[in-house]
Amino acid sequence: MKKTTSVAIGGFDGMHIGHQALFCELDADGTVVVIDAGYANLTPKNFRELHTKHKVEILQLDAIRHLDGRGFVELLGRHFPKLKKIVVGYDFHFGKDRKYSFADLRELFEGEVVVVDEVKHNNDSVHSHKIRAKLQIGDIKGANEFLGYNYSIHGSLIKGQGLGSKELFPTINLEVGDFLLPKEGVYVTTTRIDDEEHFHPSVSFIGHRESTDGSFAVETHILDGVVECKQKAEIRFVSFLRDNEKFASLDALKVAIKKDIAKATKELKLLAL
Hints:
Elements (H helix, E strand, L loop, with lengths): L5 E5 L6 H7 L6 E7 L18 E6 H4 L4 H11 L5 E5 L3 E2 L5 E2 H7 L3 E5 L3 E2 L2 E2 L2 H9 L3 H8 L4 E7 L4 H4 L5 E4 L9 E9 L6 E9 L7 E7 L9 E12 L6 H22 L2
Parallel strand pairs: 1-2, 1-4, 2-3, 4-7
Antiparallel strand pairs: 5-6, 8-9, 10-11, 10-15, 11-14, 12-13, 12-15, 13-14
């Protein structure tokens, strides 16, 4: 990070439109500095890198939370010897017990300190905790508007029940660790398989298989043909279709899935996704 001349500092879980407002203040040699508290589940760990053109540096909160204001600024100076500009949000606090604010930063840092005002969407302030709340009630479109992109999860391929290809519709079953999962139900999605560049139209299910073995599953059905998944997949959520339900028979479940597929196909065609 020796070339870095500007940094944007924050937790940045989600890399949402509020965060992007900070990134817009960075110059060509800017770096996004993530203070990671360990609870990020919208864009955990290095997945933040997918949502910015800038370099990303992650500092663990536990390693720096003891610092006073001057100690924090000195740490930035050691990491970024050419630093001339710091960008933070209006509610930024740092140092031990979050004692210091952007006002202290302006006193302690010799360069420029840019403070970005609150970002609102439809007169509602944009925050990561609100995005989490929207996902947990299935408000995918609301979450996506705050994010500025379709919420996505990444998972590793696991073996499913085997019912899909035999009795119902073939699915790719995933184990998802670090990401927040939306509420149980069926979703209109797009899915990227392994390292493919493009996304396939899909319908995805998250929840307990109430109509079969009751186990929890994250699975996606590809709409444009059978695609072999070898290791991993990324699911992007477009909209919520319906709640998780228990059906009296596999035939009834199959009818419901057919309706899900028809609705998803129609919506994705309209969106040209």
